Structures are given as structure tokens and as C-alpha cells.
């Protein structure tokens, strides 16, 4: 049985480094030299390629060698010890690193032949409260790791979790393509990560009672703490709103999918669906077995049981609807070289990721097979099943020349890249 002394022993920070060792660990991350910048450029290029090719493994590799966190922890330490020299040195280093990162990423995305925004790029443009939590907890773990005699694998794990590299690369993509929305979204995500890593570092420094550089009166110290809290709240507000919006849209999308899968005739394909919150409308474009007016009215009355009280159902159906023409119309409407059939007027993030993933796959096909002139990808939702993997993916490829493409190889590639088992592939 544990005694009080045993419990106290558990909570002792046995592996804590000395104050001098902790400061030296922080100093090691503040090297303003050419080798540090060369590593940063390599990391940015690797991360940019990973984002461009939609490869999570490559992105993780880039984060492991990134030197970005050192400057941010330095800022948090400087604020916690009231060391203005540390704050200035760390801030200057961070500005240099941001400038180099943006320049490198922008240059890469200007030169790469694959221009589409992948799902990994899009996912870095909508920060949420979850990113705040990850940055705060990751920064706390990072500073605790630096205060240990043997940090172990804490710092590499923190580098991956807080993900400082991908937002900077995504911001570079936004600059390269003059897309202010992507630039601002990714920039805000990077700011959130940096800010809350610094805040958590500040709190850990206080908890460890590291020596202060200069004496400061209690009133001023209290004002600094109050300012930190106020800034933290202000920075969090947009991310909380974004998270709430994302959760609401995800729930609505799931409810609509559930409605389609359980209520629409099993011989019908839903080619397009959208939720119009302003007009309280559910819009469906259906191909296949025709729905009568009585069917539509019955479906309309059931919307309330799927989380859409007060909504009206609008159905567009045409037995002569040409699938290729319809997909190409969506393609033109969205001004996107490769589009998904599955669109949503509320811009559901998960659907945006699907669209951008299709775009990336189309661009990769063009890079692999230069004879391909156009790729159109669309998702048809068959109502026999709720399993998304059993839905059908419609792919139309145009090629120059005489039928030189291997249909089986392309189909296997599409199955691996999209996760869809059922693919209808047409090459013309």
C-alpha cells in the first residue's frame, strides 16, 4: 500500500535539468546561422511536395526536421522571465524563418506542374478550437521536454502534433495562386499554433520558477498575465466560431446522407445535393427511377425527422439527363479543372476536401499520362447502402492519340487513390 511519502515521490520532477541546462536547451534552438536556414529550406520543400502530392508521410517527415519551434519557445521563455533580449532575438529569428519559408513555398508552387489544391492544403485553411488545444498542449509538452535532462522523443512528437510547417507552405500556395482566402486561413492557423505554443511555454516557465532576467513589480507582472489572457481569448474567438460551423455542417451533411440512403428509391442516384440555409431548402439532382409528386411530398414531410425542421425539398430529375454533360456543367460552374458531383452551398469542409482530393488525383493522372487532356470525376450516391466505399465513382478521361491508355492500370490507381471500390471509367 502506498504511503503519503510514496505519493509525494511520484510527483517529484526527478529528471528535471538544472536552470542552466534548460536555458542552454532553449539557446540551442535560437541559432541564427546559414545551416539552420538551409535545414529550414529543405524542410519547407519537403512539406510543400507532400502537400502538393497529398502525402501525409512526406509532410510528417518535413515536420520532424523543421527548426521553427525553437524561436517560438524562445519568445515564450523571454516573456516568462521578462528577458527582453530573448524576446527580441527570438522574434527576429522567427520573422526571418517565416520570410524564408514563404519565399521557398511560393517559388515551389509557382514552378510545380501540379497546380490543384490537394485535400492536405485545403485542410490547413480552416483553423478550429481543436488546433488551439493541440498547440497549447503540444507547446506545454515541448517546454517540459526541454526542461528534462533527457528529452527523449518528446520534441519530435511535438513538432508533428503542432504542425507549424504545413500552414506556412499552404500560405505560400495562396501567394503563388493569388488566393487570399487560402493565404489568410493558413496564416491564421500558423499564428494560432505559434501564439499558443508561446503561451504554454510562458506558463511552464512560470511553473518551473526559472530565474527572471530583471526584477519587475507585482502590479506590472499582473498586467502582463492579464494581457496574455485577453490576447488568448481574442485569438481563440474566430477558431471557436470556425469549429462550431464545421461541426454543424458535418452534422447536417451526415443527416442529409442518412435521409438519402434511407428514403430515396434504391434505383436512384443522387448526382448532386446541397443545403441552402438561407431559404431552408434541400436541393437534390436525381438520375434513375423517377419520383412522383406524391413521393416528393412524402419525402418532404420526413425531412423534419432527419434534423431539417421547416426545410423544403426540391428535386430535379430528368430521365434523359446526360451524365457527362451534367458533370462538365458542374466543372464549368466551379471553374475547377476537376470537380466532384457532390457539392454543398454551405461549403462543407469535408466536401471541399473531397473536391480538392479529386482535383489532385486528376492532376496526378495528367502528370503520369501526358496524353490525357482532361479528367472529370464525379461521385454518384447509390441508395442501396450507407457505406461510402460502395458508392460509385464516375470518371471520364479524354486523351489525345489512339487508345494508348491502360484502362485496368488507371482503374487500380483510382481505387487506391480514392478508396472507392466501384468505379465506372470511360476513356474517349
Please give a quick description of this structure.
61% of the residues lie in helices and 11% in strands.
Report on the structure:
The protein is of the alpha/beta class and 428 residues long. It is 61% helix and 11% strand. The protein is built from 16 helices and 6 strands. The chain has a 6-stranded mixed sheet. Helix 3 (34-52) crosses helix 6, helix 3 (34-52) crosses helix 10 (165-176) and helix 5 (69-81) packs across helix 11 (180-208).
What is CATH's topology name of the largest domain?
Glycerol uptake facilitator protein
Indicate the CATH class of the largest domain: Mainly Alpha
Described by the principal axes of the CA atoms, the overall outline is globular
Strand content: 5-15%
Give the proportion of residues in helices: 55-70%
- What's the main sheet like? 6 strands, mixed
The count of DSSP E runs of length 2 or more, i.e. the number of strands, is 6
Number of individual domains: 2
The number of helical runs is: 16
Keywords: Membrane, Transmembrane, Transmembrane helix
Region (Disordered): 335-357
Pfam families: DUF389
InterPro entries: DUF389
Amino acid at each position: 500500500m502506498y504511503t503519503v511519502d510514496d505519493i509525494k515521490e511520484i510527483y517529484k520532477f526527478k529528471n528535471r535539468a538544472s536552470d542552466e541546462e534548460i536555458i542552454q536547451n532553449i539557446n540551442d534552438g535560437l541559432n541564427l546561422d546559414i545551416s539552420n536556414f538551409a535545414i529550414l529550406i529543405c524542410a519547407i520543400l519537403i512539406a510543400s511536395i507532400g502537400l502538393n502530392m497529398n502525402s501525409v508521410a512526406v509532410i510528417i517527415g518535413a515536420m520532424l526536421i523543421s527548426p521553427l519551434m525553437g524561436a517560438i519557445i524562445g519568445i515564450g521563455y523571454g516573456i516568462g522571465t521578462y528577458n527582453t533580449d530573448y524576446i527580441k532575438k527570438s522574434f527576429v529569428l522567427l520573422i526571418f524563418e517565416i520570410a524564408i519559408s514563404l519565399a521557398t513555398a511560393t517559388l515551389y508552387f509557382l514552378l510545380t506542374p501540379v497546380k490543384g489544391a490537394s485535400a492536405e492544403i485545403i485542410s490547413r485553411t480552416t483553423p478550429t478550437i481543436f488546433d488551439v488545444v493541440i498547440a497549447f498542449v503540444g507547446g506545454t509538452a515541448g517546454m517540459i521536454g526541454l526542461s528534462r535532462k533527457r528529452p527523449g522523443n518528446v520534441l519530435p512528437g511535438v513538432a508533428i502534433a503542432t504542425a507549424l510547417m504545413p500552414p506556412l507552405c499552404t500560405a505560400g500556395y495562396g501567394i503563388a495562386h493569388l488566393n487570399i482566402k487560402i493565404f489568410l486561413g493558413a496564416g491564421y492557423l500558423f499564428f494560432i499554433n505559434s501564439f499558443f505554443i508561446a503561451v504554454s511555454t510562458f506558463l511552464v516557465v512560470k511553473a518551473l520558477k526559472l530565474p527572471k532576467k530583471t526584477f519587475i513589480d507585482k502590479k506590472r507582472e499582473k498586467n502582463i498575465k492579464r494581457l496574455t489572457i485577453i490576447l488568448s481569448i481574442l485569438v481563440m474567438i474566430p477558431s471557436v466560431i470556425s469549429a462550431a460551423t464545421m461541426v454543424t455542417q458535418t452534422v447536417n451533411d451526415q443527416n442529409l446522407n442518412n435521409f438519402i440512403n434511407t428514403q430515396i428509391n434504391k434505383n436512384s442516384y443522387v448526382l448532386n445535393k446541397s443545403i441552402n440555409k438561407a431559404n431552408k431548402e434541400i436541393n437534390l439532382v436525381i438520375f434513375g427511377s423517377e419520383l412522383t409528386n406524391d413521393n416528393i411530398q412524402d419525402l418532404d414531410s420526413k425531412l423534419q425527422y432527419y434534423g431539417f425542421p421547416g426545410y423544403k425539398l426540391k428535386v430535379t430529375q430528368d430521365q434523359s439527363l446526360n451524365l457527362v454533360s451534367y458533370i462538365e456543367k458542374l466543372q464549368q460552374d466551379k471553374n475547377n479543372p476537376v470537380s466532384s458531383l457532390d457539392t454543398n452551398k454551405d461549403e462543407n469542409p469535408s466536401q471541399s476536401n473531397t473536391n480538392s482530393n479529386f482535383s489532385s488525383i486528376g492532376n496526378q493522372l495528367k502528370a503520369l499520362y501526358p496524353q490525357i487532356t482532361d479528367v472529370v470525376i464525379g461521385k454518384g450516391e447509390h441508395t442501396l447502402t450507407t457505406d461510402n466505399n460502395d458508392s460509385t465513382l464516375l470518371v471520364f478521361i479524354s486523351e489525345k492519340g489512339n487508345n494508348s491508355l491502360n484502362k485496368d492500370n488507371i482503374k487500380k490507381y483510382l481505387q487506391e487513390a480514392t478508396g472507392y471500390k466501384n468505379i465506372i471509367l470511360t476513356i474517349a
